[in-house]
Amino acid sequence: MTAETRSGYHHGDLRAALLANASEMLESGENFSMRALAKRAGVSAAAPYRHFDDREALESALAVEGFDGLRATMKALPSPPADAAALSEYGVAYVRFALAHPARFKLMFGRECDDRDDERVRAAGALNTVFFDAVAAVFPGPGAEALATAGWALAHGLAFLHLDGKLDNLDPEAIDERVRASFMAVLDPH
C-alpha cells in the first residue's frame, strides 16, 4: 500500500477511490470482483465491505453515479427548451452519454431498479423528472407524460441500437442527426 493510498483512506475518501477504480475496471471491460477492486485500490480485501455490502451494492452505486452524470448532462442544456428542435437535443445528449459510457449505461439499465436502494431510485427518478420537465415545457398539457415516456423510449432505443451495433456508430455527427431526425418525426411530424 502506498503512502498516497493510506493517506487517502485515512482522509475518508476510500469510497470515492473504490468507485473510481470500479468505474475504470467496468469501462475497460475488466471483470471485477470485490477482491480485485481492493487489490487495484491498494487496500485489504475486507476494506471495500466497509462501504459496500456486496458487489451488487457497488454496482448500484456506480449506476447512481451514472444516472446523476446523465442528469447533469441533460440539465446543462438550455432549459426550458424553446421548441421541439431544442427538445431533441435532450435525446442527442442521452445517446451521446450512452456511447461515451457504454458499460456504465448498460449497468444503469441492464437490470431492474432495486426499489430497496433509495439512492438508485432517487437518481433514476431525478433523470425522469428532467426529461419530463423538458417535454412539458414544450408540450404542456395532459399528454406531456405520455410524450415524455415516448421520448425517453426513443432515446433509449436509439442508444441501445447503437451500442449493440445495429446502427452505425462510427460518425458522431451522423448519430446526432439520426437522433434529431427521429425526435422530430415524433414531435413535429408535419
From TrEMBL:
Residue ranges for the DNA-binding region feature of this UniProt entry: 33-52
Residues of the HTH tetR-type domain: 12-70
Keywords: DNA-binding, Transcription, Transcription regulation
MF annotations from Gene Ontology: DNA-binding transcription factor activity; transcription cis-regulatory region binding
InterPro entries in the cross-refs: Homeodomain-like_sf, HTH-type_TetR-like_transc_reg, HTH_TetR, MT1864/Rv1816-like_C, Tet_transcr_reg_TetR-rel_C_sf
Matches recorded under Pfam families: TetR_C_33 (PF13305), TetR_N (PF00440)
Classification via Gene3D superfamilies: Tetracycline Repressor, domain 2 (1.10.357.10)
Annotated protein name in UniProt: TetR/AcrR family transcriptional regulator
Lineage summary: Bacteria, Bacillati, Actinomycetota, Actinomycetes, Mycobacteriales
